[in-house]
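MODEL INPUT / OUTPUT PAIR
PAIR INDEX: 1
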Amino acid sequence: MHDFFAGSGLVGLGLAGMFRPIWANDSCPRKADVYRSNSCGEHFVLGDVRNVRGLDLPFAHLSWASFPCQDLSLAGPMGGIEASRSGLVWEWLRVVRETSPRPALLVMENVTGLLSAGGGEHFRKLHVALGEAGYRAGAVVLDAAIFLPQSRPRVFVIAVTAGARVPEELVSKGPCWLHSSAASSLGASLPDWIWWSAPEPEIRRPRLNDILEPDLPFDRDGVLRLLGPRHKAALDALENAVSTGYRRTRNGRQLLELRFDGMAGCLRTPDGGSSKQFLVVKKNGRAGARLLSPRETARLMGAPDGFVLPVRPNDAYRAMGDAVALPVARFLGKAILAKLAESIYGATTGQSWRFREEGLTRRRTLQTDDIGRDGQTESDGRSELPWPQTTTILAPVTPSRTSRLRASSTYSGLSSIPTYFRPVFRHTWPTVPDPKNGSITKSPRSEEARTQGNTSSGGKVAKCAPVKGLVGSRHTVRKARQPPPSAGSRTASQS
């Protein structure tokens, strides 16, 4: 997959086992440090998306764009989709148009204002542009509150190439639980709209108490003086309480507004004085206040405790406030995107995906071992992914890529993640054609060739070094354990 505006990389982690990031981009150096520290990806390109050219990108089945939301958010200037920041979506669409061959799947993620701002006119422009580029699309709204104790509704625009086969199970005849009133209104009036559908998941989320760090000092008690009469009365009426709140300006007066539903408010970036979320805990009649810690914000986004965060709190708040909640990306991948990819690209037994370049092709086999939701292996030791365990793929080989193809490697960057989120990829290259003379040689099986990480030119293995200014339980990538595959159980991994 291509991961545009990748930020800290939670989308790639959420889609692990279904789609593999082969190219990622962001313009923020501090987010780039977080991404590289957690994925060890040489595929990350730091720079302005306006400088990206589609013809330079490797082929991918999915292009994901979490484009900036400032001009579409109620908390921002509402400049609209043509403004300087949210308008970068047009640069992404330009890159998609330039890519050859184009990805058959597109996903755009943003705040719900994308659907409602300007009476829906901003989204109409985007929908029409997708149609002109040869895609059919529909929008769904998912709230992280289904999986996490954080209220975080987000819009996901899912598009497929016109003429692509879409399984009937993924489409409904009208609005369903995935569609807000704004999405329903737009879908009824726009051409080539797809009513995406998926089974509604059971609400399974940890409590707010479960994600807190218990030993941190409450050093912001003075903020309790900003409580308005209604919120103060609600807090006074409780003997014990755990709540979160933001400072807001009402009628020229700054107030602390709390919520008592066991949920955190939507995380924000630290730009601005009221963007940091407070935690208020009352125990045995005594209340204390502090800011949510960086690790707590990471847990509210579904990131595991092994996820490496910046040392500076504001950098950590920014990395999480701009991110996509990991379980939401995971659900979207398993419920819709993976099934679409299976249908479009034919990831089934006996079929193959064929791409040719300069008449030179190579056969490769991809295998995946995955871990179940409860941290244990599934009954058959395999993932719940909808396709078989092994798929034969024909893919192009060029001289510039030969050195990468000569080594077997384990997908990097997930060793610090608990088993719930840690699929283990084993890429096996049975034969590799030499581009100079066309001869077939066996891929090396040395210990160095099996070391986790991407390979660089010359056949050397590129290892991930710690990034200064970042903290976490692990700073280096270690080889993941790989149980032997059971006979007859098969899966395919996609880019």
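PAIR INDEX: 2
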Amino acid sequence: MTNQIALVLALIVLAFFGADYLLMDGAMSLFLARKLLELTEWLAFWR
């Protein structure tokens, strides 16, 4: 991964979190965090 690609990806992630905070008060970030937690628990079960 080049530095340019890493920078673009970081800007996309920051834009997502900024838009989520401004438009939906962080609800989407919280939803994704909960789903990620469920996924890690599900993967740990199948390990």
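PAIR 2 NOTE: Residues 3-45 form one domain.
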